[in-house]
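Fold these two proteins, one after the other.
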Amino acid sequence: MGEWDFTDAVFAPHALQEMERRGLSIVDVRAVLAFPPRVHHVREGRVVITALFDPTARSQFVMGVFIDIDRARPVVVTAYRSSKIKK
């Protein structure tokens, strides 16, 4: 799986609230965590995964998952979706 292994990540309460509000399921976020296509360092101890996500083959969007990696286990702190695929 390369340098990154987020399969044992836990979800902060804030992340779960924001995921529900934004219509992101734990299953979908875990799929991105299992095979992170792009991982960017945000700051010391935090990364963001960005992934093109296509749950229905008609509703493509970018998913971003922010993870604190300076803990015993990675902690998902928030996740978002964006329809702005090209920037």
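Now the second one:
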Amino acid sequence: MTKLIACLALLAGSTLFCGSAIATQLVYTPVNPTFGGSGLNGSYLLSVGEAQGFGAKSGPNASPDLSGLENSLNNLGSNNSTGTGSTGTTIIIPSSP
């Protein structure tokens, strides 16, 4: 019985002692070259961004598509229930004192 208690105490003590040797400090390494990351990541990040297809478009119509936002804002104050996101309630914004 005492050997079992001694073995358990030795096992618990060695676990606590070795646990601190395993832990290491986490160090943040940036990926984007703009923020100090490796310059070799630039082409990879560009290809991933182009594959997603979002973002500003090039050419004469270089503005992003905001039609969904404009539709949502137009439906915000309407009292009809046909709009997407319209609940039929009126929003009252109090004026600041």
